[in-house]
């Protein structure tokens, strides 16, 4: 059964071969003019895609963030000032107002597809 977000997706864009994403790390790709940070969270056997922009000081940096786990929640910490965001929801895990955009993904035949709702 599809989630509400999956039902709204109009385009699945083939973004990258998953083998090109470093283990337990991220990489920045440009998709449809947007910088997107994609992560291979190998320890959890999960992949994520979020905007590359850290909203704290508006730096394009999150693909170089440090991924980890906060009480079961997969997260990325910005390398500049360590603001931390959920990789699932984009929520700021430091209790601050700003958050990041997350993208629905699916993995098929060794490729990551990112869903858009335009
Ligand atoms: S620029 Fe990312 S935490 Fe400050």
Automatic annotation (TrEMBL):
<dbReference type="Pfam" id="PF13806">
    <property type="entry name" value="Rieske_2"/>
</dbReference>
<feature type="domain" description="Rieske">
    <location>
        <begin position="13"/>
        <end position="114"/>
    </location>
</feature>
<keyword id="KW-0408">Iron</keyword>
<dbReference type="InterPro" id="IPR052034">
    <property type="entry name" value="NasD-like"/>
</dbReference>
<keyword id="KW-0001">2Fe-2S</keyword>
<keyword id="KW-0560">Oxidoreductase</keyword>
<dbReference type="InterPro" id="IPR036922">
    <property type="entry name" value="Rieske_2Fe-2S_sf"/>
</dbReference>
<keyword id="KW-0534">Nitrate assimilation</keyword>
<keyword id="KW-0479">Metal-binding</keyword>
<protein>
    <submittedName>
        <fullName>Nitrite reductase small subunit NirD</fullName>
    </submittedName>
</protein>
<keyword id="KW-0411">Iron-sulfur</keyword>
<dbReference type="InterPro" id="IPR012748">
    <property type="entry name" value="Rieske-like_NirD"/>
</dbReference>
<keyword id="KW-0349">Heme</keyword>
<dbReference type="InterPro" id="IPR017941">
    <property type="entry name" value="Rieske_2Fe-2S"/>
</dbReference>
């Amino acid at each position: 059964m599809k989630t509400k977000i999956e039902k709204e997706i109009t385009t699945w864009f083939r973004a990258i071969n998953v083998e090109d994403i470093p283990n337990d790390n991220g990489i920045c790709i440009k998709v449809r003019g947007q910088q997107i940070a994609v992560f291979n969270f190998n320890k959890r056997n999960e992949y994520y895609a979020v905007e590359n922009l850290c909203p704290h000081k508006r730096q394009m940096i999150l693909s170089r963030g440090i991924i980890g786990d906060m009480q079961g929640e997969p997260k990325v910490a910005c390398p500049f000032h360590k603001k931390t965001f959920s990789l699932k929801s984009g929520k700021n895990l430091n209790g601050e107002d700003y958050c990041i955009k997350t993208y629905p993904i699916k993995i098929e035949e060794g490729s990551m597809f990112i869903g858009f709702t335009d």
